[in-house]
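User: What would this chain look like folded?
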Amino acid sequence: MGKKTETNRSYRDRNASVTVSVSFMVHLICVLGLAIAFWVAQNVYSINLVSDPTQTLILLWVVESPIVILLYSLLRRNPEQCSYLKAVGRGIVGLPIGALLMAFGAVILGAPIGIQYLEKTVNWSLLMSLFTVVPTACVFGSSWEDWQRLFAYTKPVEVLDYIICVPAHGAVIGTWLGAWPMPLDWERPWQEWPVCVSYGAVAGYLLGILASLAFMLVFGGRRQHLKGE
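Assistant: Here's the prediction, encoded as structure tokens.
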């Protein structure tokens, strides 16, 4: 039993070490994917979230989804038991499931309902799913214990947890803050659903990435210090 525990601890240490070394690149590529999608929308199609939120959101999640799924599948837990293709499949399945959850939550919290808002809500929900649900699905699959630990209790314990948990929380908090101007009587086009919440989600996600990198540096440094002792 002691030998098995030591083996599991050793695997977690190797996994955390590898994650620290590649986490910056994973985040950088995800951010570049978003930047490219925004650039293409603005410079190729002459649209943005204000002028054409539906088409811009479609472009964002279509460009970002293969990047997120393929990258986070590389970081899957227990690679000896879960193949890369299986992790990719979990991410693909998690995308629409997460979108349903996001859409349901948005409607419960006051998002407008109507056929004219349906396409906007669907595409916003798909982007939010990429920020929150898909990375977790790729890495942890259906492990309820890990989902509960990261999102119900917010108790990340490994570097890999911070990569997933902090940007996801940042996207949700950014969405919540972005919704504040919507009911104000300013009559600005960016107050329409889901323009300001989309900007808020992207901003929160990017800030969450920066925060996760800081957490990982502290976590990695502490781990190295403990190893030295």
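The CA atoms of residues 189 and 198 lie 13 Å apart. If you want, I can go into more detail on any region.
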